[in-house]
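Lab notebook: predicted structure, single chain.

Context: the supervisor wants predicted structures on file for every construct in the current expression panel, including those that have not yet been purified. This is the next one on the list. No modifications to the sequence; it matches the entry in the shared construct table.
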Amino acid sequence: MNTLLHDLMEYGRIDLKFELIRWAFGHFPIVMSTWVCMKLSTVLILYPAFCRWATQRSGWFARSSPRVYNLSWTFAYVMFQVAFLIFPLRVISIYHLPLASTLAITMEQARLIMKAHAFVRENATKVLHFKPKSGGRESSEVPIPAFSHYLYFLFAPTLVYRDSYPRSPACRWDYVFTNLAQVVACLLYTYYIFIRFCVPVFKNFTEDHVTSKRIILSVFSCMLPGTLALFVGFFAILHSWLNAFAEMLRFGDRLFYKDWWNSTSFANYYRTWNVVVHDWLYTYVYKDVYWLLGREQRSVAMFTVFLISAMFHEYILAVSFGFCYPVLFIMFAGGGFSFIFLTNKRKQRTWNIFMWVSLFTGNGILMTLYSMEWYARENCPPFSDSRIVDYFVPRSWICRILPDALP
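Prediction complete. Output recorded below exactly as produced.
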């Protein structure tokens, strides 16, 4: 309504502009081709390689040098993950993919990396603990999951591998289409939030924006639209998108989030905001670090979880935006981690208010600083001729507007 009223009062007509959204989702065929290549690599490379490692452990070389055999395959797995990181980045760099297209590729890249690790971590343990019975056919008894189980896992809305999952009796296609329509509606709504509240404020970035007064005013102005964009994104991905795929695959476990909005501690908020990612971090990061270091290093295991999560989030933003401005990383791994101890075991509703105030403030800071840096790179000259140096130096801090930079 705000956007419609603004257009009527400002232009005398409703001006539904879609130029920005068409630009943001540009090069769609390249995005789909990249997605297919990433998916096929996990199907045609990772699964056959795992089967070969598991079945050949009874061979002469594996039995004579089991440590060398396992380490060589571990190195091959690590190289696969590294190549999986590099290939999409090359595609993004070569074709100069825009914001939303890059965001889609990097998020899918992170999802498939986590799925690949979950599959290998779960099944490698079973293979290593497998003891073949004497007189039996050793290779056929190795506990290798069926290819159909692995393929289902790649598409299922979960990051924790299991050989089987609870299944619903039938697919309700009307429910699928309703959720997909909600995703489209949320996308358009988020688009107009940025068009109305972000672009007009920051598009003509100048040195005046870097003053403490302008930054504070911008943060408070962006609190509501930033938090609203967070809510819409949460609903679109963790509710509508995941439920649509769960229904299509008849995936029975629909617990993608809990009542995080009632949290009185940040520890509970992090556990309930995104159950899908939390379960992966707890199962494959926290428990492993906890097992390696012992009970006394529980805080180290917790910090490792936050560090990896913050790195993934910052990686997605840095690649999508085209610059490294680690605001989210600092807030996530720094403030977010310290708030766990500040609000630990708090039950009073006052702490729920504190959580909401922190969320609003944090979203305002994120929207302000990232928007300033985005438009500083549109309007300001590069800091250095080196692309690497310019990628890491915040241009909004050292902006000197060229005479013909602004319209």
